[in-house]
Specification:
alpha+beta; Alpha-Beta Plaits; 2 domains; five-stranded antiparallel beta sheet; four-stranded antiparallel beta sheet; 8 helices; 22% strand
């Protein structure tokens, strides 16, 4: 092989076959590169796009980045269906197979610990959104007879919004506590900004839950039962995902996010 090596994830050896038509970044099929009891999932990518300088330029190109991230995620999703992958950072690239093996050797102990901790587990995401407009039937706003009436209407509207935020916060806290009891670990992420995400409503809970595959069906059913509990609130469930939110915290503080700081890494 003459191209660079793009690394998607590290995992334990597994017997199940990946999808026959699966392609990765740049259209090349992923393959398994074994080192001791670890496997790096890699594919060949062209140097003209993934050498250090062009890669840095591409990372400023939103269309290119979106396409690459989609191909990267397709491989991670395929791996999640058959094993427990430890995803590496988008754009983790090495010169050749030897460089990948050097990286595996250098980080072998940390990879093993993380994979042991995540084995047989997946990540589920739960978001709660407050939607003020869903509290009541749409109607024409009453025309204020005076400035005093206008201010009164504004105060009533503001009070209703405050009550919704308080109710949403109580619901989100209660839901998180309930789900945390059924999960092996949790992460609370910062609420999403609707102006940036394009998702309607105010995000009041953005959480990830590490759940065993054996208990995932029960977890999903629990979330589904909450979706109609509170009017004006929307509950969204995503997953199952590779355990992105739980793969970066090692007891010794080592960041396991695929950062190619070893000398053979050529990515950004």
């Amino acid at each position: 092989m003459t191209g660079l090596r793009y690394v998607y994830a590290v995992c334990r050896p597994f017997g199940a076959a990946l999808q026959r038509q699966l392609t990765g970044v740049g259209g090349a099929p992923p393959r398994l590169l074994r080192h001791h009891d670890l496997v790096a999932v890699v594919s060949e990518v062209p140097e003209r796009d993934f050498a250090e300088r062009p890669l840095r330029a591409h990372l400023e190109d939103l269309d290119w980045l979106t396409e690459t991230a989609h191909a990267h995620q397709n491989v991670i999703d395929a791996l999640t269906a058959v094993t427990t992958p430890l995803p590496l950072r988008l754009g983790t690239v090495f010169h050749d197979d030897s460089g990948v093996r050097v990286m595996l050797e250098a980080r072998e102990e940390g990879f093993r610990r993380t994979l042991d901790r995540l084995a047989g587990r997946v990540e589920w995401g739960v978001k709660v959104y407050a939607e003020p407009e869903a509290q009541q039937e749409p109607r024409e706003p009453a025309k204020a007879a005076s400035g005093r009436d206008y201010l009164r209407q504004r105060r009533l509207s503001h009070r209703a919004d405050e009550e919704l935020w308080e109710r949403a916060d109580r619901f989100a806290r209660r839901l998180h506590e309930t789900l945390a009891e059924r999960a092996e670990d949790t992460r609370l992420h910062a609420p999403q900004n609707s102006a940036l995400s394009g998702v309607p409503g105010r995000n009041v809970l953005n959480a990830a839950y590490l759940v065993s595959r054996a208990h995932s069906e029960e977890f999903v059913e629990l979330v589904d039962r909450t979706k109609s509990e509170e009017p004006g609130l929307r509950v969204e469930l995503t997953g199952p995902w590779a355990a992105y939110s739980f793969s970066g915290e090692e007891p010794d503080g080592e960041e396991m996010n695929g950062d190619e700081t070893n000398g053979d890494g050529v990515g950004a």
